[in-house]
Amino acid sequence: MPCGEDGGGPVTIRDVACPLCGCLCDDLVVKVEGGAVTSVDNACSLGSEKFLSQSRLRSPILRDDNQSWSPIGFAEGIRYAAEMLADAERPLLFGWSGTSAEAQCIGIQIAETIGGVIDNCSSICHGPSIMGIQEAGHPGCTLGAVKNRADVVIYWGSNPIESHPRHLSRYTTFVNGKYRENGHHDRTLVVVDIRMTDTAKIADEFIRIKPGGDYAVFSALRAIIRGHADTLPASIGGVPRERLIWLADLCRNARFGALFTGIGLTQSRGRYKNVRNAIQLVDELNRHTKFTLTPMRGHWNVNGTNQTFSFLTGYPYGVDFSRGTPYYNPGETTAVDLLGRGEADACLIIGADPGAHLPRRCNEHLATIPTIVIDPFVSLSTSFADIHIPVACVGIDCEGTGYRMDSVPIRMKKVLSSGLPTDEEVLSQILHLIQGRRPYGVNVPKALSPEAPPVA
Ligand code: SF4
Hints:
Elements: E1 11-16, E2 28-33, E3 36-41, H1 45-52, E4 61-63, E5 69-71, H2 74-87, E6 91-95, H3 101-114, E7 117-120, H4 127-136, H5 143-149, E8 152-156, H6 160-163, H7 167-172, E9 188-193, H8 198-202, E10 205-208, H9 214-225, E11 235-236, E12 239-240, H10 241-252, E13 256-261, H11 263-266, H12 272-285, E14 290-295, H13 302-313, E15 319-320, E16 327-328, H14 335-340, E17 346-350, H15 354-357, H16 360-366, E18 371-374, E19 387-389, E20 400-403, E21 409-412, H17 423-437
Parallel strand pairs: 6-7, 6-17, 8-9, 8-13, 9-10, 13-14, 17-18, 18-19
Antiparallel strand pairs: 1-2, 2-3, 4-5, 4-19, 7-15, 11-12, 15-16, 20-21
Helix pairs in contact: 2-17, 3-13, 3-17, 4-12, 9-10, 9-12
The structure holds iron/sulfur cluster (SF4).
């Protein structure tokens, strides 16, 4: 596959996948010249910005005693990170949504070797969706099926115009499908939200719901579909009963309906029970027609974290290896739990920016413990890290596997040669060094461990 080399002539690479959001659009056309991306066609502004970004870190930096940054070599930085993790009693490895499935697998091996806790971003976004799916199943489908068949599309607690800008035009609404040849003319777009979002403005119907009213509204829709509309009060969750009867009829009479659920459901009152109730509504609708539910996954490979974590440990996120076997209990073993309790004593951050997304008390704790950031870009988390190791950006300067929000694996292409090590390479070296110190692959408290050889 062609790839732009430093100083080389112009190269055009087609069918490139975008490593930004869960849409994983794989129709980008990227032009590279002189070792830099010069243009990106087909991407939205979010995706283009990542390809064209100039704010990359090029060599590792270490915070010194005066709180200033000093450059260090990759070998030194990797050894420093390995020692930091190997010496910790309660290490946390957090993030993983912005890296490849291959790197995630190595991260799980590190966590197992050091008896640490490994968590990914879904614990702060769609973890409740996964819990709902664990209880009620997943009536999912591919985005291709939605494109070709859906005549009713509902976004609930999600605003893709801002978060997934090409979702409607590529997969759900404005695109022509095999059985929806007239694009949006053949489809009805409904948005259910607590406020008038940009997506709501272009919807055929917008249903405004009261904050925290989702569970009651799903229950009301289920009751209507079961034929019990007459038992409902005049208004449910801030929505007039007649509007819900209209929505239930629209869904029941759809040829193929697609419900997309956002973090407006998972991070509001009811959380995973909202999603479980939404799945049960879809289950109810499937007695009459074909209906599906897909969580709107944010980071490009956050779905991949759930795939690899579940495949290798049995659990989708928040996996604690301190007992020697995987243990999972959201509310106890996620990053927010560990950091909020002040329990973690070292943290590796990769493919995420907790500085931007975790609660303040978590970041205050991160600032007090040894913290390693592995990321192509300087982020808010760099501000409290002890060391930042830059890496190749998956999907731009190295290959890797990502899982789209509908769980279709997409091979990410390399379009540029940056010369930076990949996440896989850095993590493999960290694992190798740690295994040298922990020959039995278990986390033995330092006080009990035999004299460990220094990392070489
Ligand atoms: S919608 Fe998402 S995956 Fe597609 S180009 Fe935009 S940021 Fe990239």
